[in-house]
Amino acid sequence: MTSADTTAVHAGRDDLAAQGLVIPPIDLSSTYPLHDIDRGGESYENLTHGGDLVAGESPVYLRLWNPTVARFEKALATLEHADGAVAFASGMAAITAVLQAAVAAGTPHIVAVRPLYGGTDSLLSAGFLGTRVTWTTADRVAEALEPDTGLVYIETPANPTMDLVDIAAVVARAGDVAVAVDSTFATPILQNPIDLGASLVVHSATKYIGGHSDVVAGVVAAQGDWLARLRTLRVLTGAVLHPEAGYLLHRGLQTLPVRIRAAQDGARRVAAWLADQPEVTEVFHPEAPGRDPQGLLGTQMRGPGAMVSFALAGGYAQAAQVASGVRLIQHAVSLGSTESLIQHPAAVTHRPVPPESRPAASVLRLSVGLEDPDDLIADLTRALRP
Questions:
Q1: Are 93 and 205 in contact (CB under 8 A)?
Q2: Which distant-in-sequence residues (6+ apart) come within 8 Å of 132 by Cβ?
Q3: pLDDT digits (tens, 9 = 90+) for 94-143
Q4: Residue 182 annotated as catalytic
Q5: How many other β-carbons are positioned within 10 Å of the β-carbon of residue 48?
Q6: In the chain, which residue ranges form alpha helices assigned H by DSSP?
Q7: Does 139 participate in catalysis according to the annotation?
Q8: pTM for this one?
Q9: Which residue among the candidates 44, 61, 117, 153 is catalytic per the annotation?
């Protein structure tokens, strides 16, 4: 089998040489010529009902299909070992489509395991899409299932605690119910939920897949009839990804393995340093003592990733001091970029989460980028001890 490093470089590009190209073109057409009325209508019907483009037929309209976006989807699906992938205009658009697909199938009950990204938590709790949610723990998923359960939703590593969830165990407990895994923190370089029985893998592609803080997108790698359902929803709701974003994401995949490994090495250094600081009461990192009781590192995950959270003895006041005091690290939301970012989950991204489930006010989340770890440690030292 071709390695992930090689796949990341070449997936979705297999037809370029025959066209005399090395780099994929960006197709910005919003509309396409129709061969004739009948063939145009048939292509429209196929694409609006979740089909893929038939060779030689017209894509009809950008909202239905775009070759640049399709190349990225093919590449991501290959990396995730999935039947296919569907890209959306944002990570939340992708999550919304997954929930809408469950509701449209007449199974609006969702079983969800906290912690999740705050936006996902808020969307599930609000019930705007007609969903009904039961919050549970990973070991009690089977008990939470109901006759109209359409989806079990988990995130691993979880945001912002880095909790690891045993995907295969959740799949076993879910039985015939589909399992969706938000794998944004891991990316397909460190984890492949499809191989463990999941039906859907969700990524905020804004993060590591894009990797440069210059594109907003979401993507779902999916199995079976979920692909057609998600494509149909994207067409009907208009949550389409722009071709330029599709190009940037496809380009981002080429360097994803090396970026992940370099940032992961830096995160290990920073996490180990944080664990030795008297101001830090807890480090949330998969390799920190006691953080992987199920032994999922090396089995489910091929590495701990580049995210680190930590709790400060001085509580909110000290967390605010550190977040405002860094100079090299950027105080900003998001993650997975070349530059390191730090933020306060309870105050910002997880603000909508109920207080009893919200991260502690003493916790900061750090996305380690590609800077020299010694420089990051020096910056954190200055912020901890101004």
A1: no
A2: 108, 109, 110
A3: 999 999 999 999 999 999 999 999 999 999 999 999 999 999 999 999 99
A4: yes
A5: 16
A6: 4-10, 37-48, 67-80, 91-104, 118-126, 141-144, 167-174, 187-190, 226-237, 243-275, 315-325, 373-384
A7: no
A8: 0.97
A9: 117
**DSSP letter (8 states) at residue 19:** G
Active-site position among 63, 71, 259, 291: 63
Tell me: the pLDDT tens digits for 201-215? 999 999 999 999 999
Q: Which two tokens stand for residue 78?
A: 């290959």
The span from the CA of 319 to the CA of 383, in Å, is 10
Q: Which of 207, 231, 291, 365 is catalytic?
A: 207
Q: Fill in the amino acid letter for 289.
A: P
C-alpha distances out from residue 55 to 14, 29, 51, 351, Å? 16, 18, 12, 47
- Catalytic annotation present for 117: yes
Angle, CA of 226, 230 and 234, to the nearest 5°: 175
Domains contained in the chain, CATH given: 256-384 (3.90.1150.10)
Residue of 121, 163, 182, 292 marked active site? 182
